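Thread amino acids onto this structure.
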């Protein structure tokens, strides 16, 4: 029993240490950009020995990857809860856009840094190779199929329209970041949904 308790405490401590490292990395990214993210700075920011970093992460790139994943985890949880909820399909569409707009509005400094780094590095990585992106496309397609089944939407290729809807939301987010627009996210989400709904809703 004592051994089990010690093992459990060890796991909790490791989780807290890893969380602290990732929090430090996100803070450095937001303030100093990717170029300012070094193993030495992350260790100092997290208050751990540099050697401790290598217990959890092989190199700077692994920390960067994990920090980005950790940053987007709240958005993933919120969107998942929304899509799993009991709202009508059209309300889920608006809620999905609102989740993204609100998240990116609140984390615009970090997002700007990540976008700038991707442009500078000419990275081949993109959302189109990200499994999370396609997971949400499939889940959004399920929402659209639900709306079709309820007679709310006209029949269409739900996967294609799901991509179009998600890309529309991302496009508005990028435009807002580029133009320095903030606030009024509810209005922006409503506009995206209304434009789509005019084309999706059955004609009477």
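Threaded sequence (204 positions):
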């Amino acid at each position: 029993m004592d051994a089990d308790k010690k093992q459990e405490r060890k796991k909790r401590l490791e989780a807290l240490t890893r969380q602290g490292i990732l929090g430090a990395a996100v803070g450095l990214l937001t303030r100093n950009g990717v170029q300012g993210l070094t193993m030495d700075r992350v260790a100092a920011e997290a208050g751990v020995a540099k050697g401790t970093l290598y217990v959890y992460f092989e190199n700077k790139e692994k920390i960067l990857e994990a920090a980005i994943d950790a940053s987007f985890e709240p958005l993933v949880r919120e969107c998942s809860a929304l899509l799993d909820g009991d709202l009508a399909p059209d309300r889920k569409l608006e809620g999905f856009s609102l989740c993204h707009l609100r998240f990116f509005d609140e984390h615009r400094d970090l997002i700007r840094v990540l976008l700038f780094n991707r442009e500078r590095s000419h990275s081949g990585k993109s959302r189109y190779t990200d499994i999370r992106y396609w997971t949400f496309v499939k889940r959004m397609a399920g929402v659209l199929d639900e709306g079709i089944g309820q007679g709310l939407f006209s029949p269409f290729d739900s996967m294609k329209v799901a991509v179009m809807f998600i890309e529309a939301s991302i496009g508005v987010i990028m435009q807002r970041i580029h133009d320095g627009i903030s606030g009024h996210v509810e209005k922006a989400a409503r506009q995206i949904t209304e434009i789509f709904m005019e084309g999706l809703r059955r004609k009477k």
